[in-house]
Design a protein that fits this description.
Serum Albumin, Chain A, Domain 1; seven-stranded antiparallel beta sheet; GGT-like_enzyme; leukotriene C4 gamma-glutamyl transferase activity; GGT_ssub_C
C-alpha cells in the first residue's frame, strides 16, 4: 500500500488542498468545475463529468481551447488505465512543396496552412460511448446553456482575451479572419471582466454534436460547413479528411519513479519527454527541494529529454526509435552521465507558449480521468467557421518543413503534439490524475509536480503552488518572481542564464486529484496562477 503525504509548504499565496469523499472536479475555470460536479450529482460518473467539463471549457475559456481543437485522455476505471488519442491528422492534400509554392518557408501560425482535423468532438463522443453512464446529450447540456445564455467573463480569461485581440487585430487583416472578430469581439474589443459573453452559433454547434454523437461534425452538416469554408478560401482540409477521422485507444506508457508509476500518452504526444527526464532523475538523490543542486539536475535532465524529443518524436508509426528504447534504464543511465556541475547546451528546439485547458475528475466508484484539450497558441489559427462558432486549431504549426526530419510535414500525418495528460499509480492502484497545461512547459511542469509530490512530500495544492522554473533554450532558464533569489544566483554560478519572469503566464496551469487508498478520500489542488477551482462533494 502507499500513503498520501498531506504536507504543506510555506509558499506565498498558497491555498489549502481540498478534501472530499463523493466526487471531485478540478479545472482552471470555476463555472466548468461546477458543471462537472452537477453531472456527478445527477448520477454521472467521472467520465461524464470530464466530458461535461471539457465541453463547458470550450465556452467559458475559449482563449485556450475550442470545439475545433484536439484532446487526449487517461481514464482509470475498474482497475485499469486506458489512453485515448483524440488528435487529428494533417489534410491529405498538404505537402511541403505545396506550402512552399504559396510563399512559405516555414509553416505559418495563422490561416488554413496549419489547420489539422479537429479531434475534440470525436474524443468526447468516444469517451461517452465507451465509459459514460448518462446520455451524451445530457452531458453536453451545461455547455450548451452557457453558450446560449452567456456567462460573466473571469479576470484571467479577460486578460488573455485582450492579449489575443491585440495580436489578432494587427496580424489577421485578411477577410477570411473576419468571423473570428465577429464571434469573439462583437463589440470591437475583448470582453471585460464580469461582462456577459455568449455565442448562439457555438450553442447550436454543441447541440448538433450532442444529438448526433459528433457524427455531424465529421460526416454531416458541420463537416459540410467546415469543408466548404476550406475550399472557398484555398484551404487543404476536405470533407474526406473529416470523414476519415477516428479517435484512437492507445496503450499508455510509463516509467517507475521511486516506486510510483508515472503514466503518459505515447507519441505523437510529448509526454515521453517528462518520462525521459524522470528516468534520468531517478538515478540521483534529492535530500532537499530548495537546493541549487536539485534545480540544476532537474533543468539539465529536462534539457536532455527535450533534445531527444525534438529530434525523435512524431506520430509513433513514423518514429525511428521506439518508446521502449527511449525509456529504457540503460538509455537513462547514458543520458544521466552527461550531467555534471555546470549547465550545458543541448541540441533541441526553442519552447514556445501555447493555449490549453487541463482538467481532472474523480467519483465515488473509483473512476478517475485526466483530460486535456487545446486549440494551440490561444485561439488557434484565427479561423472561425461561419455560422458555427468553431475556432479551428493551428496544431500543424509544429510540423517541420525539413523533409528529412522525423516530424516532417506530410499529408494524413499526426504532428508532434504538446498537450499531455498525466496519471500516477502505485502497486497497480490509482493515485490519480495530474496535468500542467502550457505548450512546451507541460513536460517540465509534470516533472516538477511529480517530484514535489514524491520526493518532497507536498500535498496537491502545495505541489502546484511551488515556484516554477522553465527551460527556454540553450542555457536560458526563466524562474518565477517568487523563486528564491539566492538559488537563482547559485544556478547562475553553474553557468545557467537565469532570468526572472515578472508575469506568471508562461509557467503553466495545473490540476491534481489524489485518492487516499485506505479511506477513499479525494485530495485536490488547483492552479493558483489562474481562476482555478476544485468543485467537490
Amino acid at each position: 500500500m502507499y500513503s498520501i503525504n498531506h504536507q504543506s509548504y510555506p509558499y506565498q499565496n498558497t491555498r489549502n488542498a481540498v478534501y472530499a469523499k463523493n466526487g471531485m472536479v478540478s479545472t482552471s475555470q470555476p463555472l466548468a468545475s461546477q458543471a462537472g460536479l452537477a453531472i456527478l450529482k445527477k448520477g454521472g460518473n467521472a467520465i461524464d463529468a470530464a466530458i461535461a467539463t471539457a465541453a463547458c471549457l470550450t465556452v467559458v475559456e475559449p482563449t485556450s481551447n475550442g470545439i475545433g481543437g484536439d484532446a487526449f485522455a487517461l481514464v482509470w476505471t475498474k482497475g485499469e488505465l486506458h489512453g485515448l488519442n483524440g488528435s487529428g491528422r494533417s489534410p491529405k492534400s498538404i505537402t511541403i512543396d505545396a506550402v512552399k509554392d504559396t510563399g512559405y518557408d516555414d509553416i505559418p501560425k495563422y490561416g488554413w496552412t496549419p489547420v489539422t482535423v479537429p479531434g475534440t468532438p470525436g474524443a468526447w463522443a468516444e469517451l461517452s460511448e465507451k465509459f459514460g453512464k448518462l446520455p451524451f446529450r445530457e452531458v453536453l447540456e451545461p455547455a450548451i446553456t452557457y453558450a446560449s445564455d452567456g456567462f460573466p467573463v473571469s479576470p484571467t480569461l479577460s486578460k488573455y482575451w485582450k492579449n489575443a485581440y491585440n495580436v489578432f487585430k494587427e496580424e489577421l487583416t485578411d477577410d477570411v479572419f473576419l468571423n473570428w472578430f465577429d464571434t469573439f469581439t462583437p463589440k470591437g474589443r475583448a470582453p471585460e471582466t464580469g461582462e456577459i459573453w455568449s455565442s448562439l452559433d457555438h450553442a447550436e454547434t454543441l447541440r448538433s454534436i450532442a444529438e448526433t454523437n459528433a457524427e455531424s461534425f465529421y460526416r454531416g452538416e458541420l463537416a459540410e460547413k467546415i469543408s466548404n469554408f476550406s475550399s472557398e478560401n484555398g484551404g487543404y482540409l476536405s470533407a474526406e479528411d473529416l470523414a476519415e477521422h477516428r479517435s484512437e485507444w492507445v496503450k499508455p506508457i510509463n516509467v517507475n519513479y521511486r516506486g510510483y508509476d508515472v503514466w503518459e500518452i505515447p507519441p505523437n504526444g510529448q509526454g515521453i519527454i517528462a518520462l525521459q527526464a524522470l528516468n534520468i532523475l531517478k538515478g540521483f538523490d534529492f535530500p532537499e527541494k530548495e537546493s541549487a543542486d536539485t534545480y540544476h539536475k532537474q533543468i539539465e535532465s529536462i534539457k536532455l529529454a527535450f533534445a531527444d524529443g525534438q529530434k525523435h518524436v512524431t506520430e509513433e508509426s513514423h518514429m525511428e526509435l521506439t518508446t521502449e528504447e527511449m525509456l529504457s534504464d540503460e538509455y537513462g543511465e547514458l543520458r544521466r552521465k552527461l550531467i555534471d556541475e555546470n549547465a550545458h547546451i543541448p541540441k533541441a528546439g526553442e519552447p514556445s507558449l501555447s493555449g490549453t485547458v487541463y482538467l481532472a475528475t474523480a467519483d465515488d466508484e473509483g473512476n478517475m480521468v485526466s483530460f486535456i484539450q487545446s486549440n494551440y497558441m490561444g485561439f488557434g489559427s484565427g479561423l472561425v467557421v461561419p455560422g458555427t462558432g468553431i475556432a479551428l486549431q493551428n496544431r500543424g504549426h509544429n510540423f517541420s518543413m525539413d523533409p528529412n526530419h522525423v516530424n516532417a510535414l506530410k499529408g494524413g500525418k499526426k504532428t508532434y503534439h504538446t498537450i499531455i495528460p498525466g496519471f500516477l499509480t502505485k502497486n497497480n492502484q490509482a493515485v490519480g490524475p495530474f496535468g500542467v497545461m502550457g505548450g512546451f512547459m507541460q513536460p517540465q511542469g509534470h516533472v516538477q509536480v511529480i517530484m514535489n509530490t514524491i520526493d518532497f512530500h507536498l500535498n496537491p495544492q502545495a505541489a502546484l503552488d511551488a515556484p516554477r522554473w522553465q527551460w527556454i533554450k540553450e542555457k536560458t532558464v526563466e524562474v518565477e518572481h517568487r523563486f528564491p533569489h539566492h538559488l537563482a544566483a547559485a544556478l547562475a554560478d553553474k553557468d545557467h542564464d537565469v532570468r526572472i519572469a515578472l508575469q506568471p503566464n508562461s509557467f503553466g496551469r495545473g490540476q491534481i486529484i489524489w485518492r487516499d487508498p485506505d479511506t477513499g478520500v479525494l485530495i485536490g489542488g488547483t492552479e493558483s496562477r489562474t481562476d482555478g477551482t476544485v468543485a467537490a462533494w
